[in-house]
Each structure stands twice: as C-alpha cells, then as structure tokens.
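Reopening this one. Same input as before:
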Amino acid sequence: MSDIQRIVENLDRILPQFLLDEPLPGLAIGVVYNHRMIYAKGFGVTDAENGEAVTEHTLFHMASVSKTLVATGIMQLAEERIIKLDGLVSDYLPIFKWRMTGTGS
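Same output, byte for byte:
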C-alpha cells in the first residue's frame, strides 16, 4: 500500500468520527501532496437547519484563517528568496505605491 493510499484510508476512517465528536455541522478537507490533490471530500451538512450536504466544492467563510494562509505563503516566498521580508510591499505590488501617493508613479 502506498503512502497516499494510507493517508486516504486514515482520513476516511478518522474524519467521520471527528465530526461526531466535535460540535460541527460539517467540514470539507483537501490534501495536496507534491502539487497534486490527493484527497478532497466533504462531511456532514452546511448547517443544521437546511441539511444541505457538504461536498469538496462547498464554500466556507474563511474569516481570520486567511491571514495564516497569506503569512505562510509569504514565508515560503522568503525562504525561496523570491521576496525579502524587510522589503517594501510596493516593490512587489506597485498598486500600493499608486494608492498611497495617488500619483501613479
């Protein structure tokens, strides 16, 4: 059995139980390995009132979780020396310079 098959089997085994143990109506999980989606599945319902099933395509409100994702991406770019942490945002996103000065240059 491959490592990927083992991961998929373990997720299929533990996630339904996790949903029963936690106060969640539903959740969606995606796992990427070597730039390839190896697992995508929904569990439970979008909310207890409507009973609509969660799928791998269900959209969720991210709230502050997106801050962690952005910070992780920035750190990965810094580790690959694509950006510098002490650099100016406007060096990488010129629109910020334009908006701050209003001059466009």
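So the earlier flakiness isn't reproducible anymore. For the record, Residues 62-105 form one domain.
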